[in-house]
Amino acid sequence: MIYFDTSFLIPLVMPEATSERVSGAMAGFQTGDRATSHWTRIEFMSYLGRLVRMKILDGPSAALAAERFESMLRMSFAILAPAIGDFELARQYLAHADTGLRAGDAFHLAISVNRRCTPFVTLDRTLLKAAEALGIAATSAIED
Q1: 105 lies in which domain range?
Q2: Structural domains counted in the chain
């Protein structure tokens, strides 16, 4: 399985500069090989909430985006449930403070590593570097 984090999935639902390239890259991954986690669902809702608070998006538009996101996940991804071991591994990753890894990103990495998902796909450059420093196969899957 291949794990996709929130940063890679957002452009599939919300118009962003990377949307076309992410969509093209996604076509190269078989539906049966795609995985993400329930944590991704939480992060996406947090992202929408921030856009609403900043008045970039109104409530009905956010609700529609959330519905599209959930539909995409149901149709195209295995959604992994975090386990207790994921919290412990994330904690271990965070002990490497020099990586700049944030808690939510460490959690994504732990979930993917504990399920043997490879590669880990993200658009977050800091997360890519942290994964590399931790010996985790990661990619942005798009050309810069």
Answers
A1: 2-139
A2: 1
- Measured over the CA atoms of residue 18, residue 38, residue 90 and residue 34, the dihedral's sign is negative
Report the C-alpha gap between 141 and 88 in whole angstroms.
Answer: 28
In a domain, 144, yes or no: no
> CATH number of the domain that 134 lies in?
3.40.50.1010
The predicted-structure confidence for 129-140, as pLDDT tens digits, reads as follows 999 999 999 999
Q: Tell me the pTM.
A: 0.95
pLDDT digits (tens, 9 = 90+) for 89-105: 999 999 999 999 999 99
Residue 114, token pair as written in the block: 């504990």
Angle between helices 6-13 and 19-26 (to 10 degrees): 110
Q: CA dist 72 to 36, 78, 84, 128, 129, Å?
A: 11, 11, 27, 24, 28
Q: Is residue 41 part of a domain?
A: yes
